[in-house]
């Protein structure tokens, strides 16, 4: 660490030198040695891993210093401002994190002015959110604006209140929370870019969004209803994905069976047509013979189906005495 010397220390040192009977040469050597020690101690500085050093020489910007041990001009000629460029910084709204031994605690006491936000449908919501950012340009962060952290907080609060104020309370509490946070992120970054202060927003995230305590029970019921609706929609989609493919398969199978049956009937009809045309050709050649053959073929098809057969004479007076009155069955028994 560089040595610190105040004006009182230097006066005491000069008084001690005057009180001792030293020669002017020894006094000059002592003062020169003292200045050399001060210069050596003030010529070294260290930049941490997550920091960037901004070097000012005679109050004017001279350059940046990377992490590590460096030399600089002593006696206040070079001044170093260390900026945490490698760390993601965070601003909390509506709550504060209290660091304790081994665990973190959160408090909301006296922070209702930050968290209570009016929505577009004139309802009030209790919104807790964080803004994470990085310092992209340490020179702009130091010298383009006097109070960068306060500016980021004011802008973030204004943007979030605007985004929430343009939305309905049900959107803020249930379905549109992530989309609103993304919109706030984009708008906040656009404003910071217009200010050109070297800040990059990493994320804007709503930590917790609740209705005010007097109406919290009613809003919880609304939230439960929304979740139940989403669950029923998911179940309906699952049922749809299970039933529709099966119905489509059955419909495709029925269509294929119908197409096969249609082909079978068409082929059978064409065969019958061809057979009829062949019979018609033969009938035209020999009508009597063809008629007789058709008559006999028809009897061959009909007679085996009958249980009893009676053969009458032409006059219809009775049965023929020399023929059996009953036909043989298919098994050969009378």
TrEMBL record:
The keyword Iron does not apply. InterPro entries: Band7/mec-2_domain, Band_7, Band_7/SPFH_dom_sf, HflK. Keywords: Membrane, Transmembrane, Transmembrane helix. It is a single-pass membrane protein. Coiled coil: none annotated. Residues 42-223 form the Band domain. One of its GO terms (cellular component) is membrane. It is found in: Membrane. HflC and HflK could encode or regulate a protease. Belongs to the band 7/mec-2 family. HflK subfamily. HflC and HflK may interact to form a multimeric complex. NCBIfam families: hflK (TIGR01933). PANTHER family: MODULATOR OF FTSH PROTEASE HFLK (PTHR43327:SF2), STOMATIN-LIKE PROTEIN 2, MITOCHONDRIAL (PTHR43327). This is Protein HflK.
